[in-house]
Design brief:
Blueprint (H helix, E strand, L loop, with lengths): L1 H17 L14 H18 L1 H6 L1 H11 L6 H9 L8 H23 L6 E3 L12 E9 L6 E9 L6 E8 L2 E2 H16 L1 H13 L12
Antiparallel strand pairs: 1-2, 2-3, 3-4, 4-5
Length: about 220
């Protein structure tokens, strides 16, 4: 059940990012979370429109697109460490780095799978808001609209790097279900029971399978 919710959340996140209306900005302003999301979405959406047939048929291209266009603006290391949770102090620096890399690849594989299902859903964007300079966390809410279906509320959670002042997304919440919490529930017990090295190996194998829709426990 949790895996199905996770898959739904991944699809919602990917579809929201690629459905945003184009804007004029060309440079990604990572010091403004609202501008960052809109600009990244525009650049990704433009490439998808120009290569729609390839997006549908080429898994490798979809993964490369996600890696290049979206991942620089996702704080995958922070998210990975949140998934490790209380087990963090039981891991070495090398183990944490390996898990964070595998988790980032897992995000890429999952989003690429969702991208293959894109069908021009409409995104209802919020009004722009100026974020105070002293804020370190911000939530930005969108709605996904599809004919014949109820609007899906989608909340992006972003954090500001205290050293660089740059914002990156680390979680999203759809229908009150947190993507990060879902992965904490799925991977946390596995890390406690099997160790982080084993779970990293499972992620690496899963990522290489080109079947992000499958459960992590399938085919171990």
């Amino acid at each position: 059940m949790k895996f199905m919710l996770w898959r739904k959340l991944v699809c919602a996140a990917a579809l929201s990012l690629i459905s945003m209306l184009p804007v004029m900005a060309a440079t990604v302003d990572m010091h403004d979370p609202y501008k960052m999301l809109i600009t990244v979405a525009e650049q990704t959406f433009n490439e998808i429109k120009a290569n729609s047939s390839k997006v549908k048929s080429d898994v490798a291209y979809r993964r490369e697109l996600i890696e290049r266009q979206l991942m620089p603006y996702v704080d995958s290391t922070y998210a990975a460490y949140k998934v490790i949770g209380n087990n963090l102090n039981k891991t070495s620096k090398e183990e944490r780095a390996a898990f964070a890399d595998a988790f980032a690849d897992y995000i890429v594989a999952s989003y690429a799978d969702a991208l293959g299902k894109y069908d021009k859903q409409e995104l209802v964007m919020p009004a722009y808001q100026q974020v105070p300079a002293d804020e370190t966390m911000v939530n930005i809410k969108f709605y996904i609209r599809e004919p014949g279906k109820q609007d899906l509320e989608l909340l992006f959670k972003l954090r500001k790097n205290s050293k660089t002042g740059e914002w990156r997304a680390y979680d999203m919440v759809a229908e009150n279900i947190s993507m990060l919490s879902a992965k904490q529930s799925e991977l946390g017990p596995m890390i406690r029971e099997q160790g982080i090295a084993k779970v990293t190996a499972i992620l690496v194998k899963h990522n290489a399978s080109q079947n992000a829709a499958a459960s992590l426990t399938e085919g171990k």
